[in-house]
Amino acid sequence: MSDEDRLVMSRGTLTAGIDLEEVAAMRRRMERVNEAICDIEPPRPADIPMRTFIIAGALIGCVVWLLQNGLT
To answer: How confident is the model at residue 3 (pLDDT cuts 50, 70, 90)?
Structure first.
């Protein structure tokens, strides 16, 4: 291997056997995929009514009270 080939390989600019047009086309496709992914909006969580939290808190309070008072 010549010194010139080593220099080209160290820079990453050796293109022997690589179809540059195909690489450019793949880059364009990847850009379109990236744009499509960025356009997708994540799903919003469902709105939970406040009464659900109140009932859950009451149930937790009952369990704690029962554990503290000996389940009698």
So the answer is: confident
Quote the number of domains for the chain. 1
What is the residue type of 25? Answer: A
Cα–Cα distance measured from residue 17 to residue 23, given in angstroms and rounded to the nearest whole number: 12
Q: Can you give the residue range of the structural domain that contains 53? A: 3-68
The confidence score (pLDDT) of residue 70 equals: 77
pLDDT tens for 20-71 read 677 788 899 999 888 877 767 777 888 889 999 999 999 999 999 999 887 6
**Nearby residues of 72 by Cβ (< 8 Å), 6 or more positions away:** none
Spatial neighbors of 5 by CB under 8 A, at least 6 apart, are: 14
Residue whose pair of structure tokens reads 């291997």 in the numeric block: 1
Question: How far is Cα 40 from Cα 42, in angstroms, rounded to an integer?
Answer: 6
